[in-house]
Amino acid sequence: MDTSYESRMRQHPFDSLREGDVFIIMNTGFFILKQKENEMKKLKRIVIKEELVELTQDYKIAIVLQQFITYQERINLINDSLPDINDHLITPADPIEGFYKTPEKIIEDCMMTHTSTKQIMKYIAILENRLWVKKIHFPELFLIRYKINMPQIHADLFELGYPLVNYEYNL
After folding, report:
1. Of 4-8, 61-65, 158-162, minimum mean pLDDT range
2. CATH of 50-160, one of 1.10.150, 1.10.10, 3.30.70, 1.10.287
């Protein structure tokens, strides 16, 4: 490789650019800020809880239930902050009831990439039949929201001899 001054001057800065690079051109020079291919992916985590596996008798259904509980906790955090937000709004926002997730998004969030949407819907139907999840239909929007029934989960876990720890819910 020729590293002489002449060869370096012949090489244009754009020659080193790759698709997806972000760059800035300033009067002092050319800078590549970030190369997307070198970016680290954000890692996901799935928690499999013994008490939910015992409750559901299937670790895949337990994963879906745990993910639903996580979604519900996020919604509860939003609802808890609504009084502070409503102080600054002209029209107050109503509390959010339940959460909306497509089967494809549930598959992605649960890292169950080899599971079909039909199978995920079967898991949700099992959760609904056992009264742990409630479907809220919005036919005008072609939308289904899900809401967790934490008191029922608590009662069923109590019957099995498991405590419900690290969860907050309103009766």
Report:
1. 4-8
2. 1.10.10
Q: Are 124 and 133 in contact (CB under 8 A)?
A: yes
Structure tokens of 149? Answer: 């029934």
**Hey, where are the domains in the chain?**
5-38, 50-160
Q: What whole-number distance in Å separates Cα of residue 6 and Cα of residue 108?
A: 52
Residue 78 is predicted with a pLDDT of: 76
Q: What's the pLDDT band for 112 if we cut at 50, 70, 90? A: very high
